[in-house]
Amino acid sequence: MQQRNGIWRLLVSICMTVPVTVAPWARAATPAQVQPGSLDVAVLYTAGGSNRIPAQHLWMQGGSLQVHGQFWHGLGVVADVMGEHTSNMARSDVGLDLVTATFGPRYTWQPEQHKYALFGQVLVGEANALHSVFPAQGGATDSDNSLALKVGGGLNYWLSRHFAVRAFEADWVRTQLPNGSTNLQNYLQLGAGIVLR
User: Is there a single domain that holds both residue 25 and residue 50?
Assistant: First the structure.
C-alpha cells in the first residue's frame, strides 16, 4: 500500500512538473505567424548572372534592402532597393554598377504551427546603370536607366517572433538597358540574409 502511494505521488509530481518545464520550450517553438499590419525588413546578400550583351554573360554581387508590409491574410506589398557591381564585364576592363528600385505585391504562405514561410512576388520599378559604357546616339554614355521587372519568391525561417533567416530568394530580373542589340537583359538573382519584424 505504501509503495502504491509512493507511485501515485511520483506520477502527480511528474504531471505537475512536465507542464512547467515544457511550457517555455513550447512558447519558444511556436512559429511567428505573419499578422496583418506587420512590417518586415530584410537585408540580403545577392549574386547572379546576366546577359547584358547577348551570348556574353556577366556575374554581379551586391545587396538588397526590402521592406514588406502585410495587410490582409497573406497579401502584402514590398519595396526593394538592390545594388550590385561587377568590375569586369564581358571580358573587358569595363565595369558596371546596377541599382534597381522596385515595388509591388507579395503573397506569403505560412502553415499553422510551422516556422517557415514561403512567398512569391511581382515587382516593377526602375533600373539605373552607372560607371559603364552604353551605346547612344552620336557615341556612348557611362550611365542609363530603364524599366525593371522582378518576379520570384523565397523562404523565410523564423527563429523567433522578431527574427528570421531568409534561407533563399530567387528572382528573375528583366531590364531594358541599351546594349547595341536587343536592349533587353534577363538576370537570375539569388539572395540570402536576415529578416527583422
Answer: no
